[in-house]
Design brief:
Blueprint lengths: L4 E9 L6 E10 L4 E5 L6 H8 L7 E5 L4 E4 L11 H11 L4 H14 L15 H13 L5 E5 L7 H16 L3 E5 L12 E6 L2 E4 L14 E7 L8 H6 L2 E5 L2 E7 L3 H9 L6 E7 L12
Helix pairs in contact: 2-3, 2-4
Organism: Streptomyces griseochromogenes
Keywords: ATP-binding, Nucleotide-binding, Transport
Protein name: ABC transporter
Length: 293
């Protein structure tokens, strides 16, 4: 995602004289950012996400920027005339993959979310949970620049929920943006760069939101890595980390627990790989062997 997506003075209502669902919305979605949207039921969160995904057109105002976007709704239409694998293969081909590559990518993403056993099951016969896995899979298939998730975790089992959190971290680490709504306040706690609340047709930024995890907001991992003095951390690791403290040859990184696997992968797959000295979970800062206690 090379450019911002911007909503400027955006309003949305249904019908010529219908009540305004949203009005005066200003929002910037920058590359590499994770944005959480909150609000009571019926306040317009889903409408906002559909505008961000450009599935709806604003009644007033304008939206600029056209990143390649994928959208996951809370409920995915299950009556499509495909099997799970056939549907994903079809979408892969639509995104420009060869038939062989699309088939392979479709199988891989079903495997990732624990749905490979249902590859040949008609979509109409999938359970709610498995149908939702296919919905997530279709969104990730083309590695979107902007991923929009509207209660996308609903119906997923615990391993799939964790895998989707890792996928979110991967997208932002790669420079993409993610905008999401979820009813669980613990979802990706400490990870969002900004949190907005929909209130009375408007949008308010929560002032206590930030990239650094605060005590009590969720699991936190502390990672110590070493490398030659003067070597810079990989850009994707810097984007994932909520905070970093550096000394010659050593870096202390703080990261939301949901993003720790992706951070470690970025460090260990760098060329040459970084030496991970220690990882401390949930707010327990690991001992730095190079320091004196």
């Amino acid at each position: 995602m090379q450019h911002d997506l911007r909503l400027v003075g955006v309003g949305r209502r249904y019908g010529i004289r219908g009540p305004w669902v949203l009005r005066g919305i200003d929002l910037v979605v920058a590359p590499g950012t994770l944005i959480r949207v909150e609000g009571a039921n019926g306040t317009g969160k889903s409408t906002l996400l559909r505008l961000v995904a450009r599935l709806d057109t604003p009644t007033e105002g304008r939206i600029t920027g056209r990143p390649h976007t994928a959208y996951v709704p809370e409920r995915f239409p299950a009556s499509l005339p495909f099997t799970a694998l056939g549907y994903l293969t079809h979408l892969g081909a639509v995104h420009g993959l060869s038939r062989t590559a699309a088939h392979q990518a479709a199988g891989d993403v079903l495997e990732r979310f624990g749905a490979a056993a249902y590859a040949d099951t008609p979509m109409s016969r999938l359970s709610k949970g498995t149908s939702q896995k296919v919905a997530v899979a279709q969104a990730l298939l083309a590695e979107p620049e902007l991923l929009v998730l509207d209660e996308a975790w609903t119906g997923l089992d615990a391993p799939a929920r964790a895998e989707l959190e890792r996928a979110v971290a991967e997208r932002t680490a790669a420079g993409g943006a993610v905008v999401f709504v979820d009813h669980d306040p613990r979802r990706l706690a400490g990870a969002p760069d900004a949190t907005y609340t929909v209130v009375e047709t408007g949008l308010e930024r929560r002032t206590d939101s930030g990239s650094s995890p605060e005590p009590g907001t969720g699991p936190v991992a502390f990672v110590v890595v070493q490398g030659p003095p003067g070597r810079q951390l990989p850009p994707e690791a810097v984007r994932i980390a909520a905070a970093a403290e550096s000394a010659p040859g050593t870096h202390h990184l703080t990261v939301p627990g949901s993003h720790s696997d992706v951070l470690l992968r970025a460090l260990l797959t760098a060329s040459p790989p970084w030496h991970v000295v220690s990882v401390g979970p949930d707010g327990t800062r690991p001992h730095d062997p190079g320091s004196r206690s």
